Amino acid sequence: MIEERAKQILMIAPSLLGESLALQLTSEDDNLEIILDKKDINGLPKLILFCLEEVELSNSIKLEIHKLKERWDQSPVLIVIPKSIKLSSDDLMTFGSEGVIQDPTVELLRDTINIVIGGGRVFKINNETNYNADSIHNSYGLGHWLLTSGLSQINKDLYTLDQMIAKKSINTFYLFILIGRRRELLTAKRLIIWLWGPLEVLIESPIKSNNNKNIINKYNTDITIKNTSTNELWNVIYKRVKERLQDDLINSTNELAALYSLNKSKRCNLLKTLLKEFSTIIIKLDSKNNREKELEEILKSITPELRANTLRNFIDSYARLKKNGVDVFISDFLVHNADLGILDDELPSIALIIDPILNNKPILLDGDYLSIEDPRSIIQLETFILNWILRTAEIVSEEIISSCSEWPELRKYFLNKELVSTRELERKRNHINTNNQLQNLFKRPVRLYESKRLYYTVKNKKIEKVITLEPRDDELKKLDWAQRQIAFIIELRDALAPQVQAIIQYLGDLIVLILTKVVGRSIGLIGRGIAQGMGRNLSKG
Q1: Domain ranges within the chain, ordered by starting residue
Q2: What is the DSSP secondary structure assignment for residue 100, as one 8-state letter?
Q3: What letter would DSSP give residue 166?
Q4: What is the pLDDT of residues 288-341, one digit of tens each?
Q5: Cα–Cα distances in angstroms (integers) from residue 156 to residues 117, 267, 275, 361, 487, in the given order
Q6: Are the beta carbons of 464 and 456 closer than 8 angstroms?
Q7: CB distance 221 to 126 below 8 Å
Q8: Contact 306/347 with Cβ under 8 angstroms?
Q9: Both ends of the chain: CA-CA distance in Å?
Q10: CB 11 within 8 A of CB 36
Q11: What topology is assigned to 7-125 in CATH?
Q12: From CA 194, how far away is CA 182, in angstroms rounded?
């Protein structure tokens, strides 16, 4: 029987950390071979494990990863970072590595290594540390004083250097000097800890033991892609969106009035059902041949069908109520009474979501084309889907409210308690219609002219607005006459603003000149005459 060759992994880490981590990783997996020196590499490593003690300057890390990629272009790179970082998750995802994992256990790191070697990607980042570890108070006496005072001074100097290095105006030569000084301070810090610090500080590692009760159990950014198949990519996106929709969401947009007219249970069911129906469409399209050619034709009829299925499935399909003395299926009534073809002009084409997933197309983000398995692409698609779900839910909710106005018995079944009253319901409908008209007539033309698009997303169990910039000139040309006048007024204001500002400034300067040179001098002369007259009277007296 031929023995399987060990997976050769190049680990780039400080010596103490590298030796300790290599021992822990290989103790339970004989198939791993950890190499700590680049000179000992035999052939192409299966993985490059890059362990960072501190995440300081993103540019220097990107440069190091770029050099590694140039030398071993076929080897994936996995970055391990400590719990305390100074960079956001967005910055960490731009490093160009196949994975970033923060403060993992040995088991989690071992599983992550296998996923990345198998062609997957893993990003587990938590900017806000979840550790509640108490400060270490095991050192006393002279050693304790030397430790705390020395570390305090070094940390103060490091902070000053970080502030200086962060300035973009600094020249390259001076930057190298500062980075060298910073490296010296870090070495001195490790030496002080080694001499006077307790053992727990000496072997501080970004890898936590399994017995640690304060391990991060949930990451703010948690993306694991085992392979690049359509099914795997969609499962990752689906789980992330589903997790966002689990709880009752707080509406912080001051919009979506129709959606939040539904009672809590119906509102939650509607959002989850829309996600399920969207997933069904993805699965159906994925199973078809020549998907790219047929996609445009299918998407034209996809919206009415999806909305109809949502109205049938987000409630019990067998639920019935009396209408004019006859039992009527609620779902059938909603479908037949609703206008399923209503369009939301602010909703981007559904093809922006479906096409990249099905056809493995890159996504344009901040001027760069990103592969579909890039974590930033996953997050962008997640935003698109959440926006689509919330906007579609608002349209469906408006149709439900319209049906409740026609069939009063539905109000207790679908709506909040205060909307059971006919007066309150009609007031709510008028409010929704007025808001839609204002959006269509005033706000939308302004957004089009400013090349802005409004997205709804979910963050921290809240529905929030996100404004993005994108060219919308084609939509601007399709506006009707009244809407174009709004855009024209904005353009006219922008054109006249510099002239008006110049005129006002000129008038202001003129008034200042009159007050100081004319009025002020006249008042001075009058005052001088009065003073001289009073002086003469006093001399005569």
Answers
A1: 7-125, 141-197, 228-479
A2: E
A3: T
A4: 654 555 666 677 678 888 899 999 989 887 888 888 878 888 988 999 988 888
A5: 41, 53, 51, 48, 54
A6: yes
A7: yes
A8: no
A9: 133
A10: yes
A11: Rossmann fold (3.40.50)
A12: 18
- Our CA angle for 136, 141, 146, nearest 5°, is 75
* Three-class DSSP category at 345: coil
Q: Which pair of structure tokens corresponds to residue 186? A: 């870090």
> Amino acid identity, residue 372?
I
Contact (CB, 8 A) for 118 and 217: no
CA distance 497 to 314: 52
Burial 366-405 (b: 16+ CB within 10 A, else e): eeeebebbbbbbbbbbbbbbbbbbbbbbbbbbbbbbbbbb
Distance CA 493, CA 504 (A): 15
Token code pair at residue 241: 């969106």
CB 101 within 8 A of CB 72: no
Question: 85, 52 in Cβ contact below 8 A?
Answer: no
Q: How far apart are CA 423 and CA 541, in angstroms?
A: 89
Which residues are within 8 A (CB) of 53 and not within 5 positions of it... i.e. 6 or more apart? 14, 17, 82, 186, 206
Q: Are 395 and 460 in contact (CB under 8 A)?
A: no
Between strands 121-125 and 99-102, the pairing is parallel
**3-class secondary-structure state, position 308:** helix
Give whole-number Cα distances, 366 to 89, 271, 376, 456, 469, in Å. Answer: 16, 29, 11, 19, 10
Per-residue model confidence (pLDDT) at position 195: 62
How far is residue 254's CA from residue 474's CA, in Å, rounded to a whole number? 29
Nearest 5°: the CA angle 135, 183, 167 is 95
The Cα 95–Cα 62 span in angstroms is 5
- What phi-psi label fits residue 367: left (phi over 0), alpha (psi between -120 and 50 degrees) or beta? left
Place of tokens 């119906």: 266
pLDDT tens digits for 365-418?
877 888 888 889 999 999 999 999 999 999 999 999 999 999 998 999 999 999
User: What are 456's strand-pairing partners?
Assistant: 465
User: Per-residue b/e over 263-288, b at no fewer than 16 CB within 10 Å?
Assistant: eeebbbebbbbbbebbbebbeebeee
Query: In a 3-state reduction of DSSP, which class is residue 255?
Result: coil
